[in-house]
Amino acid sequence: MGSSFRSVFVFLLLIALLLRAGHSKTLKRD
Question: How far is CA 8 from CA 16, 17, 19, in A?
Fold first, then answer.
């Protein structure tokens, strides 16, 4: 149970980092 919640949290964190990187890239480009 706890391990499943942890994996989901890490997954969301990874997506947030990817989205943040993409946003900074577009901002730098602009």
Answer: 12, 14, 17
Q: Quick one: pLDDT band at residue 9, thresholds 50, 70, 90?
A: very high
Query: Which stretch of DSSP H or E encloses residue 20?
Result: helix 2-29
Q: Write the pLDDT tens digit of every residue in 13-30.
A: 999 999 988 777 666 666
Token pair, residue 5, equals 């919640």
Structure tokens at 16: 């947030």
How far is 27 from 15, CA to CA, in rounded Å?
A: 18
